[in-house]
Amino acid sequence: MLNLEGKVVIVTGGTRGIGLETVRAFLKQKAKVILFGSKKDTVEKALATLREEGFEATGYYPDLNDAIEVTKVIDEIAQKEGKIDVLINNAGISANQKIEDTTAQDFANIMNLNVNAMFHTIKAVVPYMKKQNQGVILNTSSMVSIYGQPSGVGYPTSKFAVNGLTKSLARELAPYQIRVNAVAPGIIKTDMVASLPKEQIEPLLKTIPLGRMGEPKDIADAFLFLASDLASYITGVILQVDGAAKN
Ligand code: NAD
After folding, report:
1. Pocket lined around ligand 1, Cβ cut-off 6 Å
2. Which of 90, 107, 129, 244 could form a Cys-Cys staple with 140, CB 3.0–4.6 A?
3. What does the alpha-carbon distance between residue 212 and residue 226 come to, in Å, rounded to a whole number?
């Protein structure tokens, strides 16, 4: 029903957390998955974990802030696989310092990975998707792109930008049958959340009407749906997957 078998799917930040679970979800659907990570050893570790689970994927570790390197790797994948069906931009970093403690470099680092890197990967896949006259681009936003957050201003700023990029490119690329959507996760059990102070997490949990933290699988399932033919008339959407949380 999802019709993802044989689809060539790239997942950035695919070595752990939401990304790794997303890789698993697409492999279960018999898609051909290529994961990106930041380092050789984390990519190899993720591929080994998947192999132990009976899955076969491939991996790369381009510097996502280097447009030339990103394009080279994506060109290589397109040559090898003959097409690129789905790009999932999931790599991201967060922040929680007060503005006084945030340097201009901290702010730039967040924008570079969470926004500019997304621009580089999208720019690299678009020529292939246009030629195919089909493609799906999915971006990872966040619930903070709806509400903002009371610290770490670079993080919500970057995710508001992700929404802008998503909605605008959905319009620009629709004539080529390329759909562009984002998933905005709430609080999901991953290393990113484990690194936040308890005082920040506990009050947030109380605000989740569904009464639990999200699991990486909750987000992976949303990506599956948006990548599938079931979502063939959905583009330009920021899908909140957050248990109705309002932080
Ligand atoms: P995580 O920290 O577990 O994983 C982050 C991924 O990004 C890793 O695979 C890592 O390799 C990759 N990454 C980090 N820095 C990188 C760099 N410089 N270059 C290339 N890759 C890099 O985080 P997660 O919770 O799985 O988050 C995944 C996405 O979901 C992020 O975009 C994050 O903003 C978003 N998100 C997470 C939550 C949450 O509660 N966990 C909520 C909202 C949004």
Report:
1. 13, 15-19, 37-38, 42, 64, 90-94, 113, 140, 142, 185, 187-188, 190-193
2. 90
3. 23
